[in-house]
Design brief:
single chain; mainly beta; Methylamine Dehydrogenase, Chain H; globular
Length: 252
């Protein structure tokens, strides 16, 4: 109970997620603390990677093994190198904003994330953040969970809609305006927290908003448009890089 968002390793051998701890004291500012752990999918013990202070707001696992994550206790993006015993490094927000739902672009050098206040949808933007230089660039105005797909689009979840806009991950150039591609996606209590994910090959998974939050069945849509419902209920569904596995949190 109390586990938070999960993600797959690039080779789909492990899953990383946040596990709650019992610590909550003056040293942490009475904020909750979590362990970032990884678990092998073929069985075996959990491996603790680091401990975080504050509630997590998403994580992503890059192709070289680097993990990025965000919390409500720091305005910026945390990076954790794959080296054993490495300590997290904070890339502070140049705009004094909190980031949410980071996602690696191809190549593993740049992350897209939603930036703004932690709660609410006012004054939010979608950013590109270099994990090498720390440079931060606004890609689009407005809130939304963003994912890149190989068709050359940035897919953005906004309220209960899924939008897409042409995007070049090399130049970080956005071409045109987002257009509606799907309606009816379930959201959490925050309007930029959408229950969907897209694999690099374009396979889409989402939770329908026809049911109470987090209680809808998973819907899977292939790049060719074939739709298949899965009889499982998950919050924050994440699809593996190969588009064949799902991980998420079961609602209470």
């Amino acid at each position: 109970e109390g586990f938070r968002t999960a993600t797959f390793s690039p080779d789909v051998s492990h899953v990383a997620f946040f596990a709650p701890t019992a610590e909550k004291n003056e040293e942490t500012g009475k904020r909750p603390t979590y362990r970032l752990v990884k678990a092998p999918l073929d069985g075996g013990p959990l491996v603790e990677l680091t401990t975080i202070i504050g509630d997590p707001g998403g994580l992503s696992w890059g192709p070289d093994g680097t993990i990025v994550y965000v919390t409500d206790a720091a305005r910026g993006l945390w990076t954790l190198a794959p080296d054993a015993g490495a300590s997290p490094t904070l890339i502070g927000s140049e705009y004094g904003l909190f980031y949410l739902w980071p996602h690696f672009l191809p190549g593993g050098k740049t992350v897209v994330a939603n930036g703004g206040t932690w709660n609410g949808k006012d004054d939010k933007h979608i950013f590109a953040i270099s994990i090498e230089s720390g440079e931060q660039r606004v890609l689009a105005d407005g809130y939304g969970l963003a994912r890149y797909v190989a068709s050359g689009h940035l897919v953005i979840g906004r309220d209960d809609q899924l939008l897409a806009v042409p995007f070049d991950p090399e130049t970080l150039a956005v071409h045109g305006s987002p257009r509606l591609v799907l309606d009816g996606i379930s959201t959490w209590t925050q309007p930029d927290t959408n229950y969907f994910d897209v694999s690099p090959n374009g396979t889409l998974v989402y939770v329908s908003n026809e049911f109470p939050v987090g209680m809808g069945e998973i819907q899977v849509i292939s790049r060719t448009g074939d739709a298949v419902p899965l009889p499982v209920r998950l919050q924050w569904p994440q699809i593996s890089p190969d588009g064949r596995e799902l991980v998420g949190l079961r609602p209470k």
